[in-house]
Design a protein that fits this description.
about 280 residues, alpha/beta, TIM Barrel, 8-stranded parallel barrel, two-stranded antiparallel sheet, globular
């Protein structure tokens, strides 16, 4: 049975509203990216404590820290960015989140080929994996347009070269569409490494993000295959139905519900059981 999680900051910057809306939609966990107008890596000790208290009181969990780590240019200084990664690890441990979402770097200039910097991308990923080798967290690489791992081939290269159970994939359908690829074409090669699924669909024609099943993201056959394979992990809603920015997106409570309902309907018609639904 699969479970529902969400980037709840897409609902509202107010954490109480995030929690309330998640509960109304049977979403039991969050992928913690932000609250109160702050990114999770900007939380101070008081913010962390307040958020943890609210999640605990609501009986909700944090499945992942939705960090922006790796969404910087590859030629930016490494040490300050690595310190930010360490902060993400601290946050994961504080919230008892098993995952940290990261990315694989932009090129120095927008139109340059990030693949020319492959060795440095790999070096940085290995350093992160080495840092967490004795910690109870796993890094999840999200495929994202314009970074090294925007396309399936490079995502596979990352997984095979780093070659660690501490480094796995968060599979994002819409981001492959926006990178000009069909998600199903990448699924078989990335399936062995994909332990977390981001629910976001998009149209090939205009790259617009749409509710699950309304675009060209091929969610249906992939979720059916996951179900047949016995996947019991999370489907993490990242709807982006009202706005989509470089570091976050927004949907609002009503469009968030629309996104959840679209996913529930897709699962229902394919006999995919969702916990609590």
């Amino acid at each position: 049975m699969m479970k529902l999680s969400a980037f709840a900051d897409e609902i509202s910057p107010d954490l109480d509203e995030q929690i309330r809306t998640c509960q109304q939609n049977q979403v039991t966990h969050v992928e913690l990216r932000g609250a109160w107008g702050k990114n999770v890596l900007e939380f101070d000790k008081a913010d962390r404590a307040a958020a943890k208290t609210k999640f605990d009181a609501a009986g909700m969990g944090v499945i992942s820290i939705g960090s922006p780590i790796g969404k910087v240019k590859i030629d930016e200084p490494w040490e300050p960015h690595f310190d930010r990664f360490k902060l993400a690890v601290e946050s994961a441990e504080h919230f008892k989140a098993p995952f940290i979402r990261i990315f694989s770097y932009y090129p120095p200039q927008k139109d340059q080929d990030i693949r020319k910097h492959r060795d440095e991308v790999i070096r940085r990923m290995i350093a992160k994996v080495e840092y967490i080798k004795n910690r109870p967290v796993t890094i999840l690489h999200e495929n994202e347009k314009e970074i090294y791992g925007e396309k399936g081939k490079e995502c596979l290269d990352l997984m095979q070269t780093v070659d660690s159970p501490k480094f796995r994939s968060a599979y994002d359908f819409a981001n492959f569409i926006q990178a000009g690829e069909k998600p199903l074409d990448n699924w078989n090669m990335l399936k062995p490494y994909s332990i977390h699924i981001h629910i976001k669909d998009a149209r090939l024609a205009d790259k617009k993000v749409v509710p699950a099943g309304e675009g060209d993201g091929q969610l249906e056959p992939i979720l059916v295959d996951l179900n047949r394979s016995g996947y019991t992990g999370f489907l993490s809603l990242e709807p982006h139905l009202k706005a989509a920015g470089q570091y976050s997106g927004f949907s609002g409570p009503e469009l968030f519900k629309k996104a959840v309902d679209a996913l529930k309907n897709l699962c229902r018609r394919n006999d995919i059981a969702l916990a609590g639904v």
